[in-house]
Amino acid sequence: MHVMMTNMRTTIEISDEHRARLLELAARRGEKGFSKLVAEAIEVYLGTLSRDEAKRQAALRLRGSFTEEEAEAMRAATSSLRQSWR
Fold first, then answer.
1. What pTM was estimated for this model as a whole?
2. Could you give the C-alpha distances from 1 to 4, 6, 49, 65, in angstroms and in order?
3. Residue 2 pLDDT
């Protein structure tokens, strides 16, 4: 199967600071503009969303798999961990 991908031009609004930082990074990479950087950032973001959703779905599939005692032990352990972070 062959998938044909096309690029689309669009307009986005970014701050002057972000634009300057993207241009600086692009220049360090030897690129004229920052389109590739934006495309990479979008891929990372979308990939993260997909992984997070997969983890959430996997966790939801576990619903009901703990006994009440196991669930209470997990709640207690989680509470203890949270308190040690502060």
1. 0.57
2. 10, 16, 26, 40
3. 67
